Amino acid sequence: MFTASRRASGRGVAILLTAGIAAVSLAACSAGSNGPDSSGDASDLDAALKAGGELTYWTWTPSGEAQAEAFMKEYPNVDVTVVNAGTATDEYTKLQNAITAGSGAPDVAQIEYYALQQFALSDGLLDLSDYGFGDLKDDYTPSTWNSVSLDGGIYGLPQDSGPMVMFYNKTIFDEYGLSVPTTWDEYIAEANKLTSADPGKFITNDAGDPGYAQPLIWQAGGQPYKTDGTNVTIDLQDAGTKQWADMWNQLLEPGLLSSIPTWSDDWYKGLADGSIATIITGAWMPGVLEGSLPDGAGDWRVAPLPSYDGSHVTSENGGGAQSVIKQSKNPALAAAFVKWLNNSDESIEIFLEKGGFPSTTAQLEDPDFLGDTPEYFGGQKVNEVLVDAASNVREGWQYLPFQVYANSVFPDTVGQSYAETGDLNSGLAAWQSNLENYGNSQGFDVNK
Question: Domains in the chain: how many in total?
Answer without folding.
Answer: 2
